[in-house]
Write a structure and sequence with these properties.
Order of helices and strands: EEEHEHEEEHHEHEHEHHEEEHHH
Strand order of the largest sheet: 5-4-1-8-9-10-11-12-13
Strand content: 15-25%
Helix content: 25-40%
Number of strands: 13
Number of helices: 11
Mean pLDDT: 94
Radius of gyration: 18 Å
Length: 307
């Protein structure tokens, strides 16, 4: 079977990560422990996740002409990701994320987007033929909405399935919702899109119904340790999470979305794609860091064989 061709359009950051007993409250200083620097950014994370799972991945992004940008390009090269549409921006720094991870593996993140905020429709248009020839397009909301809209429009015109991870949460137009094939919000993002709290799977069912009424063909609400709830024309299902001990939840949602894209690009039914993505996310939370924690296909197969 040929490798699925996936185009990811989105952000690339460098994550500066500090582990601490707990996440500080406003105005509080908490003495932390270990520190690490790792590749991050939702777009880059999803690209790396898909590449490690066997996809042929092309990334469309902007990074600064700085040391963080150099390191990002080196990392993409090691993963076999095509960077011919990654622009170097001399007018802005590379994106940076400041991350605190507590003893329970939960995190708090602040992002300085830098060059990510300067991704344009013209940047997307440079990759038009590549998008139109892809098996799946993956989008998020850490880059300007104009670029996201343009990419979704190109993919829809070409009949390419589009997976939109609506993060970070922000208003999304009906036009964009109707242009995507699969929407993958987490609980807080689903609440932001629908206006209803989504604490559990029954509430996720209500949220997915609302979003599908808006014209989204398929919706997957990720529920953290409770797994995911998915809905499409074939029906609805709650897929439980695999029982693992979380070390760091950073990039778990990105791992899930990248894995979902790979499975859907291989024509897997939605619920089977969600089961695969749930296993990938489970492996991701067992290790620290964003991109360092993303598993390979063989590691996923090994975990699924044991559960």
């Amino acid at each position: 079977m040929s490798r699925p061709r996936i185009v990811v359009i989105g952000s690339s950051n460098t994550d500066l990560v500090v582990r601490a007993p707990r996440i500080p409250t406003p105005g509080e200083t908490v003495l932390g422990g270990s520190y690490m620097t790792a590749g991050g950014g939702k777009g880059a994370n999803q690209a790396v996740a898909a590449a490690r799972l066997g996809a042929e991945v092309t990334l469309v992004a902007r990074i600064g002409a700085d040391a963080f940008g150099d390191a990002a390009l080196d990392g993409f090269a090691r993963e076999g990701i095509s960077t011919r549409f990654v622009m170097r921006d001399v007018k802005s720094h590379s994106g940076v994320a400041l991350i605190v991870v507590d003893d329970h593996g939960e995190n708090a993140i602040t992002v300085a987007p830098g060059a990510n905020a300067r991704l344009t429709e013209a940047d997307v248009d440079r990759a038009l033929e590549c998008i139109a020839d892809a098996d799946a397009l993956v989008l998020q909301l850490e880059t300007p909405l104009s670029a996201v809209h343009r990419a979704a429009t190109i993919a829809r015109a070409a009949g390419v399935p589009t997976i939109l991870n609506p993060a970070p949460a922000q208003p999304v137009s009906r036009h964009l919702l109707r242009a995507v094939s699969v929407l993958t919000p987490n609980q807080s993002e689903a609440e932001h899109l629908t206006g209803i709290p989504v604490p559990d799977a029954p509430a996720a069912r209500v949220a997915t119904d609302m979003l599908r009424t808006e014209g989204v063909p398929a919706v997957v609400v990720t529920l953290g340790a409770s797994g995911a709830f998915c809905a499409d024309a074939e029906g609805t299902e709650h897929v439980p999470a695999l029982p693992v001990t979380a070390v760091d939840t950073t990039a778990a949602g990105d791992a899930f979305t990248g894995a979902l894209a790979v499975a859907l690009a291989q024509a897997e039914p939605l619920v089977e794609a969600v089961r695969f993505a749930t296993a990938v996310a489970a492996l991701t939370v067992m290790r620290p860091g964003a991109q360092p924690s993303l598993p390979t296909l063989s590691q996923v197969d090994e975990l699924r064989a044991k559960t």
